[in-house]
């Protein structure tokens, strides 16, 4: 896939001006994924572009339409509000300190470090993020209960992406 600058600019323009939140295109083993960041506070942020080669075993079928990809991102914001509403407490967002691949367990056959509803303490390992072949253990900085895990196992994560929601004690 030829990733020329004009092509990327067109993708960014579509995201900036439209109601689409995410575009992912794969061609000849190269995948380009452009995701519009959720606004922090009231100010909207510019879209982010992620380019990486798809693993040979995970060839994806072409996406039907970009608006379909936007559907999963909308409920996440609503789910956060719903998760925060029942207890009346503010949820703590545990964010990724690095870009990498998210893993819930130390190995494929092991139990996950944490699960929804589990009590956690400061210093508990929540997950691993692999970056550049290094396994980085992410520790909890709070005491509370895991109310939501927002990332699927073995999925790529971005810097500062919310991984978990924790209800403080």
Describe the structure.
- This protein is 20% helix and 34% strand.
- It has three helices and eleven strands.
- It has helices at residues 5-17, 66-70, 73-87, and strands spanning 22-27, 30-35, 48-53, 92-95, 100-103, 119-120, 125-131, 134-139, 144-149, 155-157, 162-168.
- The longest helix has 15 residues, at 73-87.
Mean pLDDT: 74
Largest sheet, strands/sense/barrel:
4 strands, antiparallel
- Rg (C-alpha, Å): 18 Å
Shape: globular
CATH topology of the largest domain: OB fold (Dihydrolipoamide Acetyltransferase, E2P)
Count of all domains? 2
> Cα distance, first to last residue?
50 Å
Strand content: 25-35%
**What top-tier CATH class of the largest domain fits best?**
Mainly Beta
């Amino acid at each position: 896939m030829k990733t020329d600058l004009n092509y990327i600019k067109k993708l960014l323009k579509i995201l900036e001006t439209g109601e689409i939140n995410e575009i992912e295109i794969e061609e000849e083993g190269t995948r380009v994924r452009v995701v519009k960041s959720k606004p922090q506070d009231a100010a909207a942020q510019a879209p982010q572009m992620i380019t990486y080669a798809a693993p040979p075993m995970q060839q994806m079928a072409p996406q039907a339409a970009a608006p379909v990809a936007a559907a999963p991102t909308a409920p996440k914001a609503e789910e956060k509000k719903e998760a925060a509403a029942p207890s009346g407490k503010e949820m703590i967002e545990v964010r990724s300190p690095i870009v990498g691949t998210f893993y819930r367990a130390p190995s494929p056959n092991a139990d996950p470090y944490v699960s929804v509803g589990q009590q956690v303490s400061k210093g508990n390992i929540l997950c691993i993020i692999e970056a550049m072949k290094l396994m980085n253990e992410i520790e909890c900085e709070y005491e509370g209960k895991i109310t939501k895990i927002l990332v699927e196992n073995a999925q790529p994560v971005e810097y500062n992406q919310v991984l978990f929601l924790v209800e403080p004690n």
